[in-house]
């Protein structure tokens, strides 16, 4: 029968039956369009011209950051038969990096990413190759310290990538939030895969393979990253910046929060190693710790698809309080004496670390002028590294003198301290 129009624009009459009338330009049999989905913010993010290219180079350069320490330890210990020497060399390198990295980042802000990152990376790569040469040919021990110290000029590639996102989306807070979440997830992924790749290369190929591969990846990645000049932030005249980010209101308190968060990471790692070794499952400690990184990586990606916080100070406090609550799970799991239970607790505990780091980095970007983003974010990373060193020392001492299960209270206390510092951060200045 013919289809007649009804008084209602949404209904049509077919015989004695009312049926829905098709809307103009609408096919009733066409498939329904799906909602935006969780990945939509990331699709929009990487639709930015040049974003995929500089991200690919940056990831290539960032992967070795999780390889160098493990590679150096395995290479030196395998050749000299001393883990004490290997640990001392890497510790000195970390200390020198904490001193040199902010100055390298300041040069990046002042002269541009490409002009500084490429030569700084070349010096760091030469230091890695010198370390390999010294170990291979039995050079005196002091040469190992000197060579590894030269790698401290490695630029903060994660900070440079975040600075590019901040420049490209300076008028879009939602895109910056998604970008920071992606970068944090990338950090977790690289520091999870890096040690695994290093251990495999050093053991299955030859002892120097991890260091050599890391050096090649680092130099190649930085060259690819620096070649993307269209997305590089412009250099801000020096007159528009203050002398040091440490003098800006709120920055010292934020760095204190990052330091306390680093204590959480460092203590959790060393205590988990001690706990697994005490149960006779030391070889399983690596995969167990990787679960914490997996939880953080997934949480970071999901957090990036959410709306950015209207009040990032309050959001940071909420994230740190949630981290404190979730960090109480590993001590409870350790009391059962089961490594499997601890692994599950670490997976859940890791879910709060990425949102905390993303929100903290967003605050750093908010309080810093554009011409000091690299230096400010490098200071944040340095604070985290300092916290990791302090957390490792504290957690290891407590695990040795008390018990690994009791030492799990160290990351809980450090997370609680970070929450207190967040409250102080919110007080009117």
Automatic annotation (TrEMBL):
The chain crosses the membrane at residues 84-104, 116-135, 212-230, 251-276, 282-304, 316-333, 339-364, 376-399, 405-425. Keywords: Membrane, Transmembrane, Transmembrane helix. SUPFAM superfamilies: MFS general substrate transporter (SSF103473). InterPro entries: MFS, MFS_trans_sf. Pfam families: MFS_1. It comes from the Bacteria. Gene3D superfamilies: MFS general substrate transporter like domains. The keyword Transport does not apply. PANTHER family: MAJOR FACILITATOR SUPERFAMILY (MFS) PROFILE DOMAIN-CONTAINING PROTEIN, PTHR23542. This is MFS transporter.
């Amino acid at each position: 029968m013919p289809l007649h129009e009804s008084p209602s624009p949404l209904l049509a009459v077919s015989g004695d039956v009312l049926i829905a009338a098709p809307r103009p330009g609408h096919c009733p049999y066409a498939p329904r369009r799906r909602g935006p989905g969780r990945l939509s913010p990331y699709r929009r993010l990487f639709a930015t011209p040049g974003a995929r290219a500089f991200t690919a180079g940056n990831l290539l350069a960032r992967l070795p950051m999780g390889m160098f320490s493990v590679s150096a330890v395995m290479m030196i210990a395998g050749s000299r038969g001393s883990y004490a020497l290997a640990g001392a060399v890497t510790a000195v390198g970390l200390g020198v990096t904490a001193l040199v990295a902010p100055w390298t980042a300041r040069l990046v802000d002042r002269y541009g990413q490409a002009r500084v990152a490429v030569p700084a990376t070349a010096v760091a790569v030469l230091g890695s190759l010198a370390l390999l040469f010294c170990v291979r040919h039995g050079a005196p021990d002091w040469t190992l310290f000197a060579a590894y110290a030269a790698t401290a000029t490695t630029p903060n590639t994660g900070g440079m990538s975040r600075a590019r996102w901040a420049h490209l989306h300076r008028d879009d807070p939602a895109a910056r939030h998604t970008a920071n979440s992606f970068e944090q997830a990338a950090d977790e992924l690289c520091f999870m895969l890096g040690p695994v790749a290093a251990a495999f290369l050093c053991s299955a190929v030859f002892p120097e393979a991890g260091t050599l591969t890391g050096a090649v990846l680092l130099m190649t990645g930085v060259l690819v990253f620096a070649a993307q000049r269209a997305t590089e932030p412009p250099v801000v005249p020096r007159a528009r910046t203050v002398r040091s980010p440490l003098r800006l209101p709120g920055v010292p308190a934020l760095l204190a929060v990052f330091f306390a968060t680093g204590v959480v990471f460092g203590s959790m790692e060393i205590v988990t190693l001690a706990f697994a070794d005490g149960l006779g499952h030391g070889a399983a400690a690596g995969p167990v710790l990787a679960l914490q990184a997996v939880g953080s990586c997934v949480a970071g990606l999901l957090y990036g698809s959410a709306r950015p916080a209207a009040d990032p100070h309050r959001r940071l406090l909420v994230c740190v309080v949630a981290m404190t609550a979730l960090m109480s799970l590993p001590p409870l799991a350790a009391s059962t004496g089961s490594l499997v239970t601890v692994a599950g607790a670490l997976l859940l505990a890791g879910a709060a670390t990425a949102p905390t780091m993303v929100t903290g980095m967003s605050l750093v970007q908010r309080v810093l002028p554009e011409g000091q983003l690299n230096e400010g974010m490098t200071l944040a990373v340095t604070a985290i590294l300092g916290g990791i060193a302090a957390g490792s020392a504290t957690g290891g001492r407590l695990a040795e003198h008390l018990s690994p299960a009791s030492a799990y209270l160290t990351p809980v206390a450090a997370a609680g301290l970070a929450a207190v510092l967040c409250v102080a951060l919110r007080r009117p200045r």
